[in-house]
Amino acid sequence: MVRPAPLGTTLISASSDEEDSALVRCLILYETSEGQTAKIAGEIAATLRDLGHTVDESRTADAPKLADYGVVILGSPIHVGEHDPKLVEWARSHAEELAAVRSAFFSVSLAQASKNPQEREEARHMAESFVAEVGWRPDLLACFAGAIAYSQYGFLKKLVMRRIARKEGGGTDFSQDYEYTDWDQVRSFAVQIVESLS
Fold this sequence. Notes:
Order of helices and strands: EEHEEEHHEHEEHEH
CATH topology: Rossmann fold
Number of strands: 9
CATH class: Alpha Beta
Strand content: 15-25%
Distance between the termini: 38 Å
Number of domains: 1
Number of helices: 6
Radius of gyration: 16 Å
């Protein structure tokens, strides 16, 4: 796995309300395509566990009851300009439950790794549009750069992704995968979730 220097991550405070409560149990609910969103979810979980908190991870199909958690974190990749439809539908149908707990959302895309600030701004806009569309207002929202996983693509998708990568000056060797996620920013997001509860 080749890890180019990250181009940064956008963290957006979606709520300034303060609440005196402790993070007792946290749920990270996500969908993933090639596995990078799952990897990010795992790093968030590991950071929270290192801080002494209890964390469960799940896909939407196996989602437990939200009432059992003090904090719920949702994560989704963006593909062809859209967040994962399974997570979109789940969030829409559980909007009232999400409103009853402290929550956060992270969006994963290659646009966030772009050298073009307009591309990064568009990634942020898509994340904000997602939460508005489903009628949910998370306490914290983040946009993370994803990865190019040539090893998991079919031939046609490899060609498309290489064309995108070449345009951005990214990795184009089909024999390697390229990771753009800024892991320090991911861990910072996890810490901010804890800090939002104090």
